[in-house]
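re: ur question from yesterday

yeah so i grabbed the chain u mentioned. its 146 aa long if i counted rite. heres the sequnce exactly as i have it in my notes:
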Amino acid sequence: MKRRQLFAATACIVAFSAHAQVQAPAPRVALDTSEGMIVIELAPQAAPKTVENFLAYVNSGHYNGTVFHRVIPSFMVQGGGFGPDMKEKPTRGTIPLESQNGLKNARGSVAMARRAAPNSASAQFFINVVDNERLDYPNPDGNGYA
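ran it thru and got these structure tokens back, copy pasting raw so excuse formatting
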């Protein structure tokens, strides 16, 4: 009998601790484009600084009225940096690259655009329209994209 009570008590403790570890759902951002709605699910556990940076731009209205200024078929679509007049929008500082997180540049995924330097992403992002394994960490430049 005591063994059953101990098991039941242990099961309750495990159930309560499992309940306490439930994570909040991943944040989502909706981009309303001329071609329809794009919903992006973010991964704050894998790329916390990247997600924080992206959401700060979203919440400040930075992306409102921006265009997808770079479209390369069978590769990616890039936006977040230019208005319809093709004038570059001002940005905050750059963020550290978080590409060593296991995320992949798979079709439909989003990553921050950057210059050749690894820690140079700010506001621009791109959507992979195909699986872009060559952008995954470690890519030929040793850094990857996140």
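noticed a couple things. Residues 2-20 form the longest helix (19 residues). also Residues 1-20 have pLDDT under 50 and may be disordered.
anyway ttyl
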